[in-house]
Design a protein that fits this description.
heterodimer, A: 321 residues, four-stranded parallel beta sheet, 11 helices, B: 431 residues, alpha/beta, eight-stranded mixed beta sheet, 17 strands
């Protein structure tokens, strides 16, 4: 099997900590690689040898089903030995600090660590303390770069481009690392980004971060090419940020009527897990315009691309030698 | 204080915050007090047995008086003891330190004040004075024994890093304290508005994905307190303000003639939110570092005298509490040793004169707690420092005397080094 990026340039980063700091050509490189990984994943023989002999640790301080499974499959398809560590089984529960955990794992000589943590900046902190490559699988309300990459890949494969598209990111922007990473990435690739939500769920200064702000969803969806819905956490629905589920769905839930205001060929996305009937109506989630299941497939491909790109920086790798 | 040899410091650059003057001259110390100073002192015939110190090229000023430091004694001596804090203070030119009552047990009982006073006398070279809790157990509900605690030696009353949310409790405390002439010092932060926040609320906090603390968390409590001072006539000191809007509130209160003073942390004077960079936990502070415009306003506040004092807000935190993700680590930074050097940046940048700076670092804090220190005056205690305000150095945290090394000036270039610290006529630190 040919090496996916043998013909391409060396990805210029050792870690993937966020979309911030990536140049547009870095992003495009990962998306191109991911396109090839999609083909690999659709074959009967899905296994490659790119990461053979390498150890990948998935260190998840926050519960996750799809992201962890996606990273695990991606690592295995590239031939890595993958170990999953989650909060329940780790010594974090015994009061060990994050840095001590990092040092302990580092001593086991992994090649790649995939980290999700509930605190912004935790993954950067960990990356400073270990010798291997670190991938951010979500840190607090900061970034979730592989989600933004898989969203971009999904958009590009369906629309053929990203530049010039109107993308409306809707819902709880304030608490969303997905929104932050997407905002940075989509701006870098020239999309026209909008954020839509009640002001209680919008971060301060978002208008200076490359987004047009809409507090009225009908206006925000007008002529949109992509409608990206975000999950609203249950604890934020009952009067703390919005008064009730009923009221939220009425004004900010995506239903057929609101979706009709977007372009006729608009596509609907959601990073999952969905709250049907809270931010999105069931018939939309499962409807013809929905890309939600395709996003999951693209998730594995994008993570394969990231693992592969970073592996070129690992000690003893051919690209380094 | 034991009797010390007479000391004569000659050829020094004298800075007197009381008169706001600087001059070349000498200063004589006898029996632990300033005996004479000025140009006219006869340096050729020192008193018998006197130690003569040549202060050439150095500045002689009153030692710093710091109204806000956290010392781990009793209860958290692994972070800082009275003796380690005292060594840090002496190295930084701080001759009087007021210790916050957030200890374990808290300083809400005259016996604890008494313990601290005796313990400080035995273990500390500099003067370490206890502040007592304003409310029992620092719980914000019932006032402490303000009279008895004052008699035992508490210099003022505060709940340290905690804000008293209940306006009735604050009102009664201010009213009762007035009868004893006691001072109430308050951390102005609305806990509900600040809840969950870990830095200034701003575009930067949005980018970093960190929950923010709006300036209004400070101004709302400050406005309330000023109203209560107007109602009660109690003496009130806002421990640390951090934003331009608070300065306006203080200005109005002072114009009205209310018994209100305020302080600012050295950190809010010399750093801003951008210094947090990529989640530097040593810069997680309360009040949080604000915007550069707020920092400039704080400097102008000190220069104009609207802000009375600069405090170190010395708060030693160890590896366990600071080597954590930003949002999860404790607030606070050590500051006793770096306060003077950091504050001298304001003089070097031309923001204020050295005598003006020394007013905020020594004279005003002394006045506020009723000490005779903080000035060059015949008969005042000889709490003095000799320093070179220009000497450059790069801060090495490992060289700090504090037990904890959580300094926001880690690796920073600073100017100004203390060469001698004298307390009550005795030299407690020399280099």
């Amino acid at each position: 099997m040919t090496d996916l990026i043998a013909s391409s340039r060396l990805f210029p980063h050792r870690h993937l900590l966020g979309i911030e700091g990536l140049a547009p050509e870095d992003i495009v490189q990962l998306l191109d690689l991911a396109d090839e990984a999609v083909e690999v994943s659709r074959q009967v023989e899905k296994k490659k040898a790119t990461l053979r002999g390498r150890t990948q640790i998935n260190l998840f301080f926050e519960a996750s089903t799809r992201t962890q499974a996606s990273f695990e499959l991606a690592g295995k398809r590239l031939g890595a030995d993958v170990m999953n560590m989650s909060v329940g089984s780790s010594s974090i529960k015994k009061g060990e600090t994050l840095i001590d955990t990092a040092m302990t794992l580092n001593a086991m000589r992994p090649d790649l660590i995939v980290v999700r943590h509930h605190s912004a900046g935790a993954v950067q902190l960990l990356a400073r303390k270990v010798d291997c490559s670190v991938i951010n699988a979500g840190d607090g309300q900061h970034e979730h770069p592989t989600q933004a990459l898989l969203d971009a890949l999904t958009i590009r494969r369906n629309k053929g481009r990203i530049r010039g598209l109107v993308v409306a990111i809707c819902g709880d922007i304030l608490h969303s690392r997905v929104a932050r990473s997407n905002l940075i990435l989509l701006n870098a690739l020239g999309a026209d980004v909008r954020v839509v939500g009640p002001t209680t769920l919008l971060p301060l200064g978002i208008e200076n971060m490359g987004a047009k702000v809409f507090t009225n969803m009908r206006e925000g969806l007008k002529d949109a090419d992509i409608v990206m819905m975000l999950r609203l956490q249950r604890e934020r629905m009952n009067g703390s940020f919005v008064p009730s589920v009923k009221e939220y769905f009425r004004y900010f839930g995506l239903d057929a009527e609101k979706l009709a205001l977007a372009k006729p060929d608009a596509l609907v996305m959601h990073p999952g897990p969905m709250n049907r009937g809270v931010e999105i109506a069931s018939e939309i989630a499962d409807g013809a315009q929905s890309l939600i299941r395709e996003q999951v497939e693209m998730g594995v491909a994008v993570r394969m691309a990231v693992l592969e790109a970073l592996s070129k920086h690992l000690p003893n790798s051919e690209a380094r030698a | 204080m034991t009797a010390h040899r007479p000391v004569l410091i000659i050829n020094a650059h004298l800075v007197d915050p009381l008169t706001g003057t600087e001059m070349q001259g000498s200063l004589a110390v006898e029996h632990g007090i300033i005996h004479a100073f000025g140009r006219a002192i006869d340096a050729s015939a020192p008193p018998e047995g006197a130690m003569v110190i040549d202060g050439r090229g150095r500045t002689l000023a009153p030692g710093l008086v710091d109204l806000r430091a956290f010392v781990g004694e009793p209860g958290a001596e692994h972070r800082e003891s009275l003796s380690s804090a005292s060594r840090a203070a002496a190295a930084g030119g701080v001759t009087t330190v007021v210790c916050m009552p957030e200890t374990n047990p808290p300083v809400d009982d005259p016996a604890v004040v008494d313990y601290l006073v005796r313990r400080a006398r035995e273990k500390a070279g500099v003067r370490m004075l206890p502040a007592a809790a304003l409310t029992k157990g620092l719980k914000g509900a019932e006032m402490t024994e303000i009279g008895l605690l004052s008699e035992a030696g508490a210099v003022f009353f505060t709940d340290g890093t905690r804000s008293v949310a209940n306006a009735q409790v604050m009102r009664r405390a201010l009213t009762y304290a007035r009868d004893f002439g006691a001072l109430i010092v308050h951390h102005v932060e609305d806990a509900t508005l600040a809840d969950g926040g870990v830095m200034n609320e701003s575009e930067l906090s949005s980018r970093l994905g960190l929950p923010g603390i709006p300036r209004e968390a400070e101004t709302i409590v400050l406005e309330r307190d000023i109203s209560l001072v107007r109602l009660t006539g109690g003496r009130y000191h806002a421990a640390m303000i951090s934003c331009a809007a608070s300065l306006a509130i203080i200005a109005r209160a002072k114009d009205e003639g209310l018994p209100v003073t305020c302080g600012v942390s050295i950190n809010n004077l010399t750093l801003n939110e951008n210094d947090i960079g990529s989640y530097r936990t040593f810069l997680k502070l309360s009040p949080p570092l604000r915007h550069e415009d707020d920092r400039r306003a704080m400097i102008e506040g000190v220069a104009s005298g609207l802000i009375d004092v600069i405090v170190s807000d010395h708060n030693p935190q160890d590896v366990e509490t600071k080597r954590q993700p930003f949002a999860e680590c404790a607030d606070g930074a050590v500051g006793l040793e770096t306060m003077l050097s950091a504050a001298l940046r304001l003089v070097h940048n031309g923001d204020m004169s050295l005598p003006r700076l020394m007013q905020a670092l020594a004279l005003r804090p002394s006045d506020i707690i009723g000490l005779p220190q903080g000035r060059l005056l015949k008969g005042a205690p000889a709490d003095l420092i000799l320093f070179d305000p220009d000497e450059p150095f790069v801060l090495d945290p490992e060289k700090l005397h504090s037990r904890c090394k959580n300094t926001p000036f880690d690796g920073s270039r600073l100017q100004g080094r203390v060469h001698m610290t004298m307390v009550g006529g005795g030299i407690v630190q020399e280099s």
